[in-house]
Design brief:
Elements lengths: L17 H9 L8 E4 L3 E4 L1 E4 L7 H17 L3 E3 L8 H15 L8 E6 L12 H10 L9 E2 L2 E2 L2 H15 L6 E5 L5 H4 L1 H20 L6 E4 L16 H16 L7 E7 L6 H4 L1 E4 L5 E3 H7 L3 E5 L6 H4 L3 H6 L6 H10 L6 E5 L6 H8 L6 H12 L1
Helix pairs in contact: 2-3, 5-7, 7-8, 13-14
Organism: Acidiferrobacter thiooxydans
Keywords: Oxidoreductase
GO cellular component, one term: cytosol
């Protein structure tokens, strides 16, 4: 029986807790700086496992399961995935690795499991006519309207609910720690920003309802461009505005605007894609200008970085300044990860691994003290000069 045919006998209850994640962090021989604080309590590894890369086949399924298992028992307690990754196969492969980790004594409450939704999960491969598939499987079945579509992205409450259900059942858990709306900015060129905000308002209500119902614990937005571009760019999205939408959604669901569960953002960040730290395009709750990472910290949002190794490019060729600044690290991959995990305001950097052997680079960095704030900022001064 293949990984995709296996299903857990039951859904495992629980979410990441302060007590369990603290015990997990102390159980591994890693540098204390390897763990970041989510909302000041929950310990999350500064390097997490991304599960987007790889072809949709049994060999890759097994590799992901092995990586997840080894990572979880070695001190990496953050897993990021999405309903559509590898046509849904990543979810089942992760589940196989999770079950092995649980068998080895890792507690569900020690792990942060995060999924995303928006892009349609095609079955096994991209159909010859994606538009016809979406018409038959999404629109005709009432999961979304034509105006909710932007290519293969469907932003509607029912589609997001379906992808939450797909994610948690395939992973074998009752509750996801977080569920992110993936790249909502793709709707802006199609229908405009005002229409996107209206769609997000409805989706956020569905996400608050999912929290109320125990399907997710937190939610947020993952974006490739919206948090990196300049304020006057059409694709820009304001963190403060998204939080205001979340407050309105919470008031609709619970009656309390302050008790919303919008808590996580994700964006690309690495030694080449620096905008999240270097571009001042956001405002904080106090009205000051700030970078996305600074604003997120001020707004009590946890920031996750995708593209930590720039799809492997930074593992093969490092930025010269990093080579000069980190001569004690053995290779380019380790220097790139050390740069990210030392970035102020950045909680977790995701790395997609193709083989369990590559975990040694990750764990070697996890055993290394973070760069000091002065040493980190000196990298930018060197670049400017």
């Amino acid at each position: 029986m293949g990984l995709l045919d296996r299903r857990a006998a039951r859904l495992i209850p629980g979410i990441a807790t302060a007590e369990a994640t603290r015990a997990y962090s102390l159980a591994h021989d890693l540098d204390p700086g390897h763990y970041s604080d989510f909302q000041g309590r929950v310990k999350l590894s500064a390097i997490g496992l991304g599960t987007f890369p790889g072809v949709a086949d049994d060999v890759t399924d097994q590799a992901i399961a092995d990586i997840v298992h080894k990572g979880l028992v070695s001190g990496l307690n953050v897993i990021d995935t999405a309903a559509h990754y590898r046509y849904g196969r990543s979810l089942a492969a992760i589940a196989a690795g999770l079950r092995r980790a649980w068998d080895d004594g890792v507690k569900r409450e020690a792990l942060w499991l995060m999924s995303k939704g928006g892009f349609v999960t095609f079955p096994g491969e991209t159909p010859a006519d994606p538009k016809a598939y979406i018409e038959a499987e999404i629109i005709a079945k009432g999961l979304g309207r034509r105006e909710d579509c932007a290519g293969a992205h469907v932003l509607s409450p029912d589609h997001i609910r379906a992808q939450i259900e797909q994610s948690r059942v395939a992973l074998g858990v009752e509750t996801l720690d977080a569920f992110l709306v993936d790249q909502p900015e793709v709707h802006i060129p199609v229908s405009g920003k005002a229409a996107l905000i209206d769609k997000l308002a409805m989706v956020f209500v569905a996400l608050e309802e999912a929290v109320r119902d125990g399907a997710i614990a937190h939610y947020g937005v993952s974006s490739f461009q919206a948090f990196r571009v300049a304020t006057d760019d059409t694709l820009f999205l304001s963190l403060a505005s998204l939080m205001a939408l979340a407050g309105k959604a919470a008031k609709t669901v619970t009656g309390s605007e302050r008790d919303h569960h919008f808590a996580v953002i994700e964006l690309p960040f690495n030694a080449v894609m620096l905008e999240g730290f270097s571009r001042f395009n956001q405002i904080t709750g106090e009205g000051g200008e700030a970078s996305t990472l600074q604003a997120a910290l001020a707004l009590n949002l946890y920031t996750v970085a995708s593209h930590g190794l720039l799809k492997g490019h930074l593992a093969r060729q490092s930025v010269d300044i990093l080579v000069q600044a980190m001569p004690g690290l053995a290779n380019d991959a380790r220097r790139a990860l050390q740069f990210n995990r030392s970035t102020p305001g950045l909680g977790t950097t995701l790395v997609g691994l193709s083989t369990p052997a590559h975990l040694e680079d990750v764990l070697a960095v996890a055993r290394t003290p973070l760069l000091s704030h002065a040493a980190y900022m000196a990298l930018y001064h060197r670049a400017e000069n």
